[in-house]
Amino acid sequence: MLELTPKEISKRKALTINPAKTCQPIGAMYAALGIHKCLPHSHGSQGCCSYHRMHLTRHYRDPIMASTSSFTEGAAVFGGKPNLQTAIKNVFNIYKPDVIAINTTCLSETIGDDIPSIIQSTDIPEGKYVIHANTPSYVGSHITGFSNMVKAMVSYFSEKEENVLTKKVNIIPGFVEPSDMREIKRIAKIMGLDIIMFPDTSGVLDTPNTGKFIMYPDGGTTVEELKATGMSRATIALGKFASEQAAYELEKKCNVTPYVLKSPVGIKATDELIMKMASLTGKEIPYELEEERGQLVDLMIDIHQHYSGKKVAIFGDPDITISMTEFAISLGMKPIYVITGTPGKDFDDIVTKMLEDAGIEGKVKSAGDLFELHQWIKNEPVDLLIGNTYGKYISKAENIPLVRVGFPILDRVGHTYLPTVGYKGAIRIIEKISSALLDKFDRECADEDFELVM
Amino acid sequence: MPYKNFKNGVIRMNAEKAMEKILDSYPAKVMKNRKKHMLIKKSDEKQEITANTRTIPGIITNRGCCYAGCKGVVVGPLIDMVHIVHGPIGCSYYTWNTRRNKGKATRGEKNFLHYCFSTDMQESDIVFGGEKKLRQAIKEAVEIFKPEAITISATCPVGLIGDDIHTVAAEAEKEYGIKVVAFSCEGYKGVSQSAGHHIANNGLMKHIIGTGNDEKIPYSINLLGEYNIGGDEWEISRILTKIGYNIISTMTGNGSYERLKNAHNADLNLVQCHRSINYVADMIEKKYGTPWLKVNFIGIQSTIETLRNMAKYFGDEDLIKRTEEVIAEELADIKDEMEYYRNMCSGKTAMLFVGGSRAHHYQDLFKDLGIETVLAGYEFAHRDDYEGRDVLPHIQIDADSRNIEELHVEKDEKRYRLYLSPEKLEQLKKEMPLSNYEGLIKASKENTVIIDDLNHFETEEFIKALKPDVFGSGIKDKYVIQKMGVFSKQMHSYDYSGPYAGFKGAVNFARDISAGIFTPAWSYVVPPWKKEPLLEASMVEKEVG
After folding, report:
1. How far B234 CA lies from chain A's nearest CA (Å)?
2. Residue B389 placed within a domain
3. Virtual CA dihedral for B105, B106, B109, B115, nearest 10 degrees?
4. Where does residue B155 rank: exposed (0-12), middle (13-18), buried (19+ CB within 10 A)?
5. Is B76 within a domain?
6. pLDDT at B520 over 50
7. Is B130 domain-assigned?
8. pLDDT-based confidence at B2, cuts 50/70/90?
9. pLDDT of residue B257
């Protein structure tokens, strides 16, 4: 497995090998699915839409509906306006969504299609909406695309009426699972916080089997809710990379106070979220959550010996990876390699500071790739990998267990139903880490060391 | 059987109704377009279908792009080449380990299948051009991996900004003394993956096939249009090797640059996927004299027929005898299991919507299981895949196809060889599909719905109308279908099972299809409280009332 990867690290300027990111449009498509009755639309070649649907379907194991402008060579030369206009007409006629959310591609961006003016020159049926986000694949990553589409929700929908301020608080959950969004909503409910979550893919991409296919399931943030975000009293943006842009846009457009927090993975990040919620409600934090937190701490104390001091490599999307690194430190583990494929100096700064504060010497890299991570591991191995499914090749090559956290998870299930955020999510992560390490030990230890109780 | 005829008639009626409903729901222009892409098979008519034309923008199609066909399907499976994708990161990422074209090095080649290489173009590359970065990427790949060969696949922006990848490839070839082949397979070319297959195959034909110097070996064949999904190629090879054939190369599943170089040495080319490779088969025949045989290793009866045709082509008594022995042995091995599954599945119906060949091939395997296919369609086929090769001279070349290069090859005087005399070949053509394919329509049963570029809306409507027990399709509609209460089998990835080819593969398929149709989970879809009244509850209510 990966035996052609040499231990010697050579500097690369042009060749990315085994990337830890993908391109913007897929993130935009995922975000758009979090709008109720929305059909994401990919303005580019058919392949983009096909690949994004394929990839999201494999991760969520639920239908991912989206349409495409089906560019041909003619459209690439003369512009995609007729394609987009035809597409909008057909989509409203045949698939009847309330909202079409257009994302661009490297093709339409390179030829410079002006989406707003195309939308303006197209007849949009009464009560229907067409929004767009520019998502050139040659800038940033899928997280950038997610962020851009969430920002577009604000630019297109958020409204401010003079002197109207609701009791609501907006929560932008970031590029997380439907299960995570549900969990954040559950926590907010316990906290007594009246929220608008956007986007919200719970109830869209974790739907039950009822024997009926429903093109637009009940979930997703409604247009009414999106409009009302402008009159909320605050926005909590979870994850700097995926969510802060929209929160700042809301501040700019509607003067809604933004609070940018880490993605609530792990005990510290969850504490911070709950304290922020409490400061907004002005109420005591209910015992129910304290109990959950106490259970988590109980587990952290009781089984720390399973993972304490273990060296770990963490990779994936920036927001989750930052929080996961913080949590690994809370667990007494040593995250010695932390990478994300998404570019961004903030990532290096934040994670480097975390490691420094914890007295851990490690390597941190944004815009990195899994080939280099593997080379680092070949030079100094780790005990555990935490990241998405793509880590399984390194895991097999080096016989290092992999705990699957983040996007995408293409070969295991559970992530859409069971959260990794919040205290409950943290318990789930500990269960996974502990099991992965102990399973390896059990499989490989000598008979005389094989124990019933661990 | 009167029952079957009755059932068939009902299917026809339901299909006609569904078709009418679909077309009625469409805006006029869409209706006019889609109407020509669907038909119901009638044996007494010569039926025409429109195919390989543009998908209407906005329609939720299953089709992918030219790049997907080139790098994703044809070029990507070659194990010993560093496949550099020139473009932003996504295109390379999505073709990384996502198709199940398994591969194993057997001649000491390097195997790069688990690697993903990209120039990860950034905004400045789009503005100032990406050739410099591509050159540097090749340099880095050569220094790190020392490959024998490299491919470069272009993604959408590359053609638009005018990067000359062919010159870069030629220069790199000279500089590093290795093979470097570039493919201008930008996603917007053609109307589907099919254009990409063509571009890829042209490149392999032009630059690789015929460049090797291996000695000729007897009973040698190439396996064309076989992508080793789930290990199909390994199962086919097992059978062929057992009989005594020598497989020189496979295009391209489990294939390699090293082996492909010698493809000109074969005595016979086998064409499994007609859509993606028929033109290569034609070109090889023209250039090197190797005839091609349309084969189908999916399905027991079709595998037997294929093996017998092959033996007849070689005409060797021992080989013919050995073929029959192997068939008998293999059949004996699977008989009991197949019978078991056939008993379970017999009488069920299937719908198939796959690529450009499998909707035909898998009908044969379903038939072995007693499952009748009521709808069959292709994502990116051309008219000849539906109507047979007779239609080839009558296909009008439109603007989208004209842009895809047609290679013109000439006889290679040094290497041209005829295994059989032209007279013998002509005679055999009457007995087997040598250089011929009759297409999906002919292979389908009366009243089968044949549909091209089936889209989401049509999928839903046809499922409601025809109520199949299993729908063989891809990942994008798999969960739509299963939400509707119908088992969906992924025919591109086999749901991570396989192989399905040959004799043992048929058993795997039978087991998986039975498991899918009969998994107890289906019985839980409706909760028990919705099936029977909650007596106790109503009694309590009464008491309270």
Report:
1. 20
2. no
3. 0
4. buried
5. yes
6. yes
7. yes
8. very low
9. 97
B481, B467 Cβ separation under 8 angstroms: no
Q: Which of A73, A93, A141 sits opposite B27 (nearest CB)?
A: A93
A63 chain-B contacts, CB cut-off 8 A: 477, 479-480, 483
- Chain B residues with CB-CB distance to A21 below 8 A: 89, 93
- In terms of residue numbers, what domain contains B163? 66-187
Residue of A nearest to B133 (CA): A14
pLDDT on residue B540: 54
Residues 6+ apart with CB under 8 A from A87: A41, A43, A67, A68, A69, A70, B57, B58
Q: Which residues of B touch A22 (CB under 8 A)?
A: 89-90, 93-94
- The Cα of B88 is separated from the nearest Cα of chain A by a number of Å equal to 5
- Cβ distance A18 to B116 less than 8 Å, yes or no, reads yes
The CATH class, in words, for A169-286 is alpha beta
User: Which SS3 state, helix, strand or coil, does residue B144 take?
Assistant: helix
Percent of chain B with pLDDT over 90: 94
> How close A325 gets to chain B, by Cα (Å)?
25
Q: Summarize pLDDT for A178-198 with one digit per residue, the tens.
A: 999 999 999 999 999 999 999
- The dotted CATH code for A24-139 is 3.40.50.1980
B151 domain-assigned: yes
Residue linked to tokens 């089998």: B489
Contact across the interface for B57 and A68, Cβ inside 8 Å: yes
Structure tokens that stand for B286 in this block: 């023209």
CA–CA separation, B327 and B300 (whole Å):
10
State the total domains in chain B.
Answer: 1
- Looking at CATH, the fold of the domain delimited by A290-448 is given as Rossmann fold (3.40.50)
Q: How far is A440 from chain B (nearest CA, A)?
A: 24
For residue A93, list chain B residues with Cβ-Cβ distance below 8 A: 26-27, 30
Say yes or no for a CB contact (<8 Å) between A94 and B30: yes
Chain A residues whose CB is inside 8 A of the B476 CB are: 50, 53-54, 57, 64
Enumerate long-range contacts of A82-85, CB under 8 Å, 24 or more apart.
A83/A43, A83/B57, A84/A43, A84/A113, A84/A115, A84/A118, A84/A122, A84/B57, A85/A118, A85/A121, A85/A122
Residue B103 pLDDT > 90, yes or no? yes
In total, the C-beta contacts within 8 angstroms joining chain A to chain B are 256
User: Using 50, 70 and 90 to split pLDDT, how confident is the model at B5?
Assistant: low
Residue B437 pLDDT > 70, yes or no?
Answer: yes
ipTM above 0.95 for this complex = yes
Non-local CB neighbours of A159 within 8 Å, separated by 6+ positions: A227, A228, A230, A231, A254
pLDDT at B545 over 50: no
Please judge whether A214 and B160 are an interchain contact, meaning their C-beta atoms are less than 8 angstroms apart.
Answer: no
pLDDT tens readout for residues B106-129? 889 999 999 999 999 999 999 999
- Identical fold at A169-286 and A290-448? yes
B541 pLDDT higher than 60 = no
CA nearest to B187 within chain A: A45
Report, as residue numbers or ranges, the catalytic residues of B.
65, 68, 99, 197
DSSP secondary structure letters along A321-335: HHHHHHHHHHTT-EE
For the cut 80, the answer to whether the pLDDT of residue B544 exceeds it is no
CATH of the domain at B71: 3.40.50.1980
Span A117-142, average pLDDT: 98
Q: How confident is the model at residue B9 (pLDDT cuts 50, 70, 90)?
A: confident
